[in-house]
Amino acid sequence: MYYEIIPNKFAPKRKDREDSMTTNSHSICYGKCNCNCVFCDFTKRPESAYNTYDDELFSEAVDILLEKGNNFKFTGGEPTLNPHLERHLEIVKAKGGYVYLDSNGSNPEILEKLMQKNLIDVLGISLKGIDKEEALKIANIKNGNLIWDNVWRTLEIANKYSDKVRTIVTLVFTQENREGRLKRFAELICPYPKAYMKINNLQRDDHPEHLNIHSIGIDSLYNEIKEFVDQNSEWKNRVIFVPGASGVSNYDSIIFF
Ligand code: SF4
Question: Which ligand 1 atom sits nearest the alpha carbon of residue 104?
Answer without folding.
Answer: 1
